[in-house]
Write a structure and sequence with these properties.
Layout (H helix, E strand, L loop, with lengths): L11 H20 L9 H12 L1 E13 L4 E8 L3 E8 L11 E8 L4 E10 L8 H17 L7 H13 L6 H15 L10 H5 L14 H16 L2
Parallel strand pairs: 3-5
Antiparallel strand pairs: 1-2, 1-4, 2-3, 4-5
């Protein structure tokens, strides 16, 4: 017991490593399948540790760059972890190009997350049908990449981002969609300028049906992007 009373509940992270230190091989042997060959203790511990450290999250691939002749680095915006970098082998059966959205199973590596599995849950293929849709999508990608930090979870923003991507092929005024998303992002991050004549209206828009009714012009979007740039260039 602590001086203040009963000891608070131990977190699973602490308990797992306490077990590891206290019981070592015997506990880990019991956790493995019956037919597992007898191997040294450290190998069994690493195997169990690897299984326990799998991460399951929804994610959207924002960009992909060539890392080597055999590997690519993908930047993902995830529901559980925010922005992360994921390393994959070129030619791996799970193809994850930009605009891929799905359920990812990842393992944390030393420098990058490693892809274990990825299953597409939402198809953003129609975005590729027109140049205007592609440009709108990559505008939204830019806003996320510039405003979000690595490993800073923002599940509400993730779902907002996913919803706006699904609307891109459907709207008639892409400038309105980009402006509303940017206003809502600024509001989410606590940077909304209440004195701006248009931002509060855009940030509180409740229906996508209203997008095409908004009188948003290129000059309006430029002004909102200028506010966004000022905020994040000095962040």
């Amino acid at each position: 017991m602590h001086r203040e009373g009963f000891e608070p509940p131990t977190t699973w992270f602490e308990a797992r490593y306490s077990i590891r230190l206290s019981y070592r091989c015997k506990v880990f042997e019991k956790m493995l399948p019956e037919n597992t060959p007898k191997v040294n203790c450290s190998f069994q511990e690493e195997r169990i540790h690897s299984l326990l450290m799998l991460i399951h999250t929804q994610a959207i691939v924002l960009r992909t760059i060539r890392y080597s002749d055999t590997q690519e680095i993908h930047t993902l915006f995830t529901e559980e972890l925010g922005l992360i970098s994921m390393l994959t082998k070129i030619g791996k059966k799970e193809r994850t190009p930009p605009l891929f959205e799905g359920a990812f199973t990842l393992r944390k590596g030393k420098s990058f997350f490693q892809l274990v599995d990825a299953k597409q849950t939402i198809c953003h293929g129609p975005i590729r049908d027109t140049l205007a849709s592609i440009q709108s999508a990559f505008k939204l990608f830019h806003y996320i990449l510039k405003s979000q930090m690595q490993l800073k979870a923002a599940p509400a923003l993730y779902h907002l981002f996913s919803a706006f991507l699904r609307q891109i092929p459907l709207v008639k005024n892409p400038l309105a969609l980009q402006s509303v998303f940017l206003a809502k992002l600024l509001f989410h991050e606590g940077h909304l300028d209440d004195t701006h004549p248009l931002l509060p209206l855009l940030a509180t828009l409740k229906s996508f049906k209203e997008l095409d009714l908004l009188p948003v012009t290129p000059a309006h979007l430029d002004a909102i992007e200028e506010i966004f740039t000022l905020v994040y260039d000095h962040a």
